[in-house]
Amino acid sequence: MKKILFPTDFSEASENAFAYALHLADAIKAEIITLHVYEYPIIDSGYIDVPVYQADVYQSLELHDFENYKSQIPLLRKIAEAHNKENIKISNVLLQGDLVSSVVQHVKDDNIDYVVMGTHGATGLKEVFLGSSTASIMTGTKAYVLGIPEESKYEAIEKIGFTTQFNKHDFNALKKVLEIAKAFNAQVECLYVKTPDNEVDEVIIADWKLIFKDQGVTFYTIESKEVEETIIDFIDTYKIDVLSILNHRRGFWEGLFHTSLTKKLAFHSKIPLLVLHED
Questions:
Q1: How far, in Å, CA of 61 to CA of 58, rounded?
Q2: One domain for residues 32 and 10
Q3: Minimal CA–CA distance to 156: which of 22, 5, 11?
């Protein structure tokens, strides 16, 4: 059985993300492992009896986090019931440490297939996806990572967007996206943004169309010098529910923030991001 790791901080963003985790688990026949990570504070060395004080603080924090986590588990079950996903197997893990390193290590140790987590706590898309724990996890683990924006409420996944330059890495990634799309009975909308310095031989494009014929993939070629703006406009025009990309495309992130603030925030508030990794 496949495994989905769901890091949570009990926030509203996490609750929204949990709905996606449930529907993904149901679609791919997976179990969910919820994970809450807490950190010890730095104790001021000015206290007279630091070891005793530190032990009291740590014990209090551990108890608080345990009780807090324990109280949240029934709430997660209620979310599952609300989405008619009571059949999903859910287990729970509480760890002390750093969130990013804990998630990365847990993915490795427990052979996690997907990480689903909410994104919140900053203003603007750049801070949320580049400066957050979610971004670090997206680039630091081999699991697929599905990042859910704070304002994104679950809706049926009918269209998955995928950007391509028709290279071998994209070919393998598209096959992975198709597996997910088939699980949701969704269409894959594959976009190639053609720029003056990034032209692909038409024969290669024709080969891809032939290979993926009748597999639920529609290919689009749009000529534009503004790659990131074109992608965002494409998402809006074709009502994309999830955007999937390869994690090696760091330039995608950097360029995205040169677009208008309005478009950035619209993208942030609506579109979950699925990050794939090269084999």
A1: 5
A2: yes
A3: 22
Task: Indicate if 91 and 126 belong to the same structural domain.
Answer: yes
Q: Is residue 154 part of a domain?
A: no
Structural domain of 115: 2-149
Within the chain, how many helices (H) and strands (E) appear?
10, 10
**4: nearest Cα among 67, 98, 84, 76:** 76
Cβ distance 147 to 272 under 8 Å?
Answer: yes
Instruction: Tally the domains of the chain.
Output: 2
- For the domain that residue 15 is a member of, what is the CATH number? 3.40.50.620
Burial tier of 263 (Cβ tally within 10 Å: 0-12, 13-18, 19+): middle
Tell me the C-alpha distance between 197 and 174, whole Å. 23
User: Quick one: which of 97, 131, 99, 105 has its CA closest to 117?
Assistant: 99
Q: How far apart are the C-alpha atoms of 133 and 202, rounded to whole Å? A: 40
User: Both 128 and 187 in a single domain?
Assistant: no
Do 141 and 180 lie in one domain? The reply is: no
Residue where a domain terminates, one of 121, 149, 177: 149
Regarding whether 246 and 187 lie in a shared domain, the answer is yes
The amino acid occupying position 49 is: D
Sheet containing strand 30-38, edge to edge, reads 90-96, 30-38, 2-7, 114-119, 144-149, 273-276, 242-246, 159-163, 187-194, 217-223
Q: What is the DSSP string of 227-267?
A: HHHHHHHHHHHTT-SEEEEETT-HHHHHHHTTS-HHHHHHH
The answer, as to whether pTM is greater than 0.90, is no
23 shares its domain with 130: yes
Note the pLDDT tens digit of each residue in 141-186. 889 999 888 778 888 999 999 999 998 889 999 999 999 999 999 9
Cross-strand pairs, 38: 96
Of the candidate ranges 2-11, 181-190, 265-274, the one whose mean pLDDT is the lowest: 265-274
